[in-house]
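Regression test case RT-17, inverse folding.

Input:
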């Protein structure tokens, strides 16, 4: 009997070209693509879409008001759980021949997130860049949980999901904000057959959301 991984790969082969490439996919920023009419409607309704970012702790008064520069640290994987088990147990289950693919998935999950934090913040007039060691504030993201979303029965249970914890500190290391960013995309044989592609898109969406959160906090 074929495993879920083999079924998912075969569906991917039949339905689409490979998603993962040597260069990042260009997922559009939410700030650029949401129609103006929808923005106005959301304002009237206060909240018409689920938020991907949940504050865990926020400094009050808010020292980020008026801030224009942040350093973004590379994503780190801390106590990572994959499909409900330790990463070591997950890797043992997929076999050594798939470890390189898994490492590549993790690399893109990190890159898409940080790229989109930077671009989304820039859309709001805030510089959030990697390597800016003189910026007064620091954004440090970690990943603690990934659901790969490999094909399973029933198919709607196959959801690719990533959980980021993002801490904002001042340059001395004093914690200012801590937020959790979580989102998932379900398997779709026609439009989202690839787990790698879904994880990349989730990372991009959450990077956009965190960048927007930073802009909102600097606006007060």
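Golden output:
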């Amino acid at each position: 009997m074929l495993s879920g991984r083999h079924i998912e790969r075969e569906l991917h082969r039949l339905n689409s070209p490979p998603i993962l490439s040597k260069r990042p996919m260009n997922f559009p920023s939410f700030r650029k693509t949401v129609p103006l009419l929808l923005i106005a409607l959301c304002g009237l309704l206060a909240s018409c879409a689920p938020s991907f970012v949940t504050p865990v702790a926020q400094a009050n008064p808010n020292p980020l008001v008026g801030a224009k520069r942040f350093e973004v640290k590379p994503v780190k994987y801390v106590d990572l759980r994959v499909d409900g088990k330790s990463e070591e147990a997950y890797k043992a289950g997929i076999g050594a021949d798939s470890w390189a693919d898994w490492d590549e998935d993790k690399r893109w999950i990190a890159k898409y997130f940080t790229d989109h934090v930077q671009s989304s913040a820039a859309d709001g007039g805030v510089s959030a860049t990697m390597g800016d060691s003189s910026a007064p504030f620091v954004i440090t993201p970690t990943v603690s949980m990934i659901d790969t979303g490999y094909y399973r029965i029933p198919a709607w249970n196959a959801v690719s999901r990533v959980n980021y914890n993002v801490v904002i500190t001042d340059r001395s290391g004093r914690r200012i904000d801590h937020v959790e960013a979580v989102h998932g995309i379900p398997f779709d044989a026609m439009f989202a057959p690839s787990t790698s592609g879904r994880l990349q898109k989730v990372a991009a969406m959450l990077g956009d959301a965190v960048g927007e959160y930073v802009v909102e906090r600097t606006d007060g």
